[in-house]
């Protein structure tokens, strides 16, 4: 948004990672988003120490209590402590606060693993399609076919093929994300392979693996990081949607999607089981998206403010 | 123009063929015996064998594919194992709610998003622009069902303006039909508005720097006409494209929104079929939705010529 003279970048290549981080630090929205994500990650990591109880502990006596409800819990040695259910309890009497905090762990883990898997598979297929001519046609036609199936529907189809469980859900979220990565990588490879330095490397007899690793792969890193953040954001959303539809990860695992799915039937009377995880989820996805926008603007100043 | 139409048509055929192969292989790639899965947990081995024969699963793969495609070509989508009725009938009975929801959503989204995007581009960098952009990122970041429940909570439970859930067919009166359609389509349009408004803004912003805009200003053209006649028309191709690509989002959103608002449409049918592991129905629905998605995008490609005469050649 601010008019920076980025056009006058030095002709000599500066260390890309350092200058990127530096430019990103001057983008207040990106910094704030990174801050939110850091807090969410810390919440996920330190969930057991943040005044939580067992997120899966069912207690039929205190079902559907409003936020702020208090109760004394007797430990095994007979000592009693007052426990405050900050976000109330769900319809099985579980502590929503504990579930939301542990949910950060599950949802973020899904986001990161989906992004990593989609990028890895997409990168491999994209390199193959872009560099090995006979493979280009078959791979790209397959990707066209996958892209013609609306994402959520493809995810639903993949889930329906396997027994419900975390691996099936991760696969279901990964598959629809792959074609876009493949297209991105392929287009980069196709443009880079015409560059003089790549032709020179080929002429000098560089073997294919080294050529890929040293001359082609580095060009894909920056766009893939940006793509990866957007995939992570969409992974959190799709997980929530699949859980909401009742075909996500097993209901006893507290992900934000599962907590909300559990609360849907009694939503009219007890909105807090959807409200709190919804706020956490929305905030996190918003931060990931904003960070992705910031990264994209920094990497490609032409796109800034678009 | 005719050559262009033919080329686009020919390009869509292989994509649909690949989708058909993928959907066909879907059931065959299931780990374990698909006939056993379809027959259910309590089926005897005779019942499983019968299902296998009925689906043609006892024949070689290419033959199975030929039979399946042949049936599809004759409009026979097969039999639903869960609903015990022909899938064609099942789908026909569910089209109206889904079509109404999708059409209403699209109408709302286009009417809201395009003016928003144009104004945001025109007032580039202003608070209005920032609000439009900020809200659109927010629209991308909240799951459809959370938006739906928020709408229900505010407009149905607190204000009592709309019914909480349900659908009324058009044959039951237009007033009630529309009354029940408002909240679901508003819910579903949020993501779509975000998507279209962003693209409109980016596209108009780019066009506004063109020489012909400066020329139009120089000759004293009113700003409103510059924006909507000169800028928007030249920015139309990317906007129309994103409307088409957004259909994928819309279809995903339909599945969720119909579940939130208990609308008996194709989306709800998809979820019910998946929960019941009714594979023939899932296959038919995926094929239908993908076909609609590809065809709409094909039609949209064909409208490019209307906006940009250079494409007509």
From TrEMBL, chain A:
**GO terms for cellular component:** plasma membrane
GO biological process terms, alphabetically, are:
transmembrane transport
Domain ABC transmembrane type-1 intervals: 104-292
What membrane topology does this protein have?
Multi-pass membrane protein
Q: Which PROSITE patterns match?
A: ABC_TM1
Q: Which Pfam families match?
A: BPD_transp_1 (PF00528), OppC_N (PF12911)
Q: Where in the cell is it found?
A: Cell membrane
Q: What is stated as this protein's family in its record?
A: Belongs to the binding-protein-dependent transport system permease family.
Please state what the protein is called.
ABC transporter permease
Name the source organism.
Answer: Methylobacterium terricola
What lineage does the source organism belong to? Answer: Bacteria, Pseudomonadati, Pseudomonadota, Alphaproteobacteria, Hyphomicrobiales
From TrEMBL, chain B:
Q: Where is the signal peptide?
A: none
Where are its TM segments located?
A: 9-27, 99-122, 134-157, 177-197, 235-262, 282-307
* Location of the protein in the cell: Cell membrane
Every copy of the ABC transmembrane type-1 domain together lies at 95-300
Q: Which Pfam families match?
A: BPD_transp_1, BPD_transp_1_N
The answer on whether this UniProt entry bears the keyword Transmembrane helix reads yes
Tell me the superkingdom of the source: Bacteria
Q: Does the keyword Transcription apply?
A: no
Output the Gene Ontology cellular-component terms. plasma membrane
Classification via InterPro entries: BPD_transp_1_N, MetI-like, MetI-like_sf
Q: Which GO terms describe its biological process?
A: transmembrane transport
The record's keywords, sorted A to Z, are: Cell membrane, Membrane, Transmembrane, Transmembrane helix, Transport
Q: How does it sit in the membrane?
A: Multi-pass membrane protein
PANTHER family named in the record: DIPEPTIDE TRANSPORT SYSTEM PERMEASE PROTEIN DPPB-RELATED, PEPTIDE ABC TRANSPORTER PERMEASE PROTEIN
UniProt lists the family membership as follows: Belongs to the binding-protein-dependent transport system permease family.
* UniProt-recorded name of the protein: ABC transporter permease
Highest classification ranks of the organism: Bacteria, Pseudomonadati, Pseudomonadota, Alphaproteobacteria, Hyphomicrobiales
């Amino acid at each position: 948004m601010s008019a920076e003279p980025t056009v006058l970048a030095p002709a000599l290549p500066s260390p890309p990672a350092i200058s990127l981080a530096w430019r990103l630090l001057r983008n207040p929205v990106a910094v704030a988003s990174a801050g939110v994500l850091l807090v969410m990650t810390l919440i996920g990591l330190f969930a057991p120490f943040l005044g939580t109880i067992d997120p899966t502990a069912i207690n039929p006596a205190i079902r559907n209590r409003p936020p702020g409800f208090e109760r004394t819990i007797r430990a095994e040695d007979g000592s009693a402590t007052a426990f405050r259910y900050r976000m109330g309890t769900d319809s099985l009497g579980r502590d929503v606060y504990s579930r939301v905090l542990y949910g950060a762990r599950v949802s973020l883990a899904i986001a990161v693993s989906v992004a990593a898997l989609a990028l890895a598979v997409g990168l491999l297929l994209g390199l193959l399609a872009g560099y090995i001519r006979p493979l280009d046609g078959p791979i790209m036609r397959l990707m066209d076919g996958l892209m013609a199936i609306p994402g959520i529907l493809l995810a639903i189809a993949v889930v329906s093929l396997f027994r419900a469980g975390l691996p099936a859900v991760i696969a279901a979220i990964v598959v629809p994300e792959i074609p876009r990565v493949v297209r991105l990588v392929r287009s980069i490879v196709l443009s880079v392979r015409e560059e003089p330095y790549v032709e020179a490397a080929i002429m000098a007899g560089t073997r294919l693996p080294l050529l890929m690793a040293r001359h082609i792969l580095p060009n894909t890193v920056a766009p893939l990081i940006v793509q990866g953040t957007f995939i992570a954001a969409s992974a959190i959303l799709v997980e929530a949607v699949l859980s909401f539809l009742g075909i996500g990860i097993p209901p006893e695992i507290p992900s934000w999607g599962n907590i909300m799915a559990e609360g849907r039937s009694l939503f009219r009377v007890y909105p807090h089981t959807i409200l709190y995880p919804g706020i956490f989820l929305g905030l996190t996805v918003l931060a990931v998206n904003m960070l992705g926008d910031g990264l994209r603007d920094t990497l490609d100043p032409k796109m800034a403010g678009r | 123009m005719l050559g262009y139409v033919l080329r686009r048509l020919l390009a869509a055929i292989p994509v649909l063929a690949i989708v058909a192969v993928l959907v066909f292989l879907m059931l065959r790639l299931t780990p374990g015996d698909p006939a056993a899965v379809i027959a259910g947990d309590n089926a005897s081995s005779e019942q499983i064998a019968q299902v296998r024969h009925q689906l043609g699963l006892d024949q070689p793969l290419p033959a199975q594919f030929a039979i399946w495609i042949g049936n599809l070509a004759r409009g026979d989508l097969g039999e639903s194992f869960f609903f015990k009725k022909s899938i064609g009938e099942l789908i026909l009975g569910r089209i109206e709610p889904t079509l109404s929801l999708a059409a209403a959503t699209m109408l709302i989204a286009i009417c809201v998003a395009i003016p928003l995007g144009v104004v945001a581009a025109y007032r580039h960098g202003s608070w209005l622009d920032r609000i439009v952009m900020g809200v659109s990122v927010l629209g991308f970041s909240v799951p459809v069902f959370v938006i739906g429940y928020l709408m229900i909570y505010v407009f149905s439970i607190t204000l009592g303006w709309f019914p909480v859930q349900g659908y009324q067919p058009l044959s039951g009166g237009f007033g009630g039909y529309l009354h029940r359609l408002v909240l679901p389509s508003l819910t579903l349009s949020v993501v779509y508005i975000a998507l279209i408004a962003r693209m409109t803004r980016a596209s108009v912003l780019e066009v506004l720097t063109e020489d012909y805009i400066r020329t139009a200003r120089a000759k004293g053209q009113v700003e409103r006409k510059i924006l909507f006649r000169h800028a928007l028309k030249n920015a139309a191709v990317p906007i129309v494209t994103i409307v088409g690509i957004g259909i994928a989002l819309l279809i995903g959103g339909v599945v969720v929104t119909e579940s939130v608002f208990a609308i008996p449409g194709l989306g709800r049918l998809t979820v019910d079929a998946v929960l019941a592991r009714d594979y023939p129905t899932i296959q038919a629905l995926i094929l239908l939705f993908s076909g609609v998605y590809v065809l709409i995008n094909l039609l949209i490609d064909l409208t490019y010529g209307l906006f940009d005469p250079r494409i007509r050649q």
